Amino acid sequence: MFHVELSADSTQPPYEQLRTAVIDQVRAGTLTAGTKIPTVRALAAELGIAPNTVARAYRELEADGVLETRGRQGSFIASSGDPTRDIASRAAVDYVTTIRRLGLDDADAIEFVHRAMD
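Now predict its structure.
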């Protein structure tokens, strides 16, 4: 079952809250491959937000491989499941490759990660 709640008090914009909520539910197994999700208009009305906000979240989820759109049939959780770990792993490899190319050591690399996370 698809259920999302957005917080007006959050520092994250609504589209990001929605995107994160879907990914969290996929990771938790609440939303499984093939689960149909509401249309942009239906979810926007349910959440009381602009359709463009939902559309942006759906576009980003589709670009990340979490959602797939099947034309008039609607949007579904992708059969690949949770691709976020694969994407993160590739990003980490790219980062380490760049650090090595710049001649920096592991301590510098970790320091940059810690700074970025703060």
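The chain has a mean pLDDT of 89.
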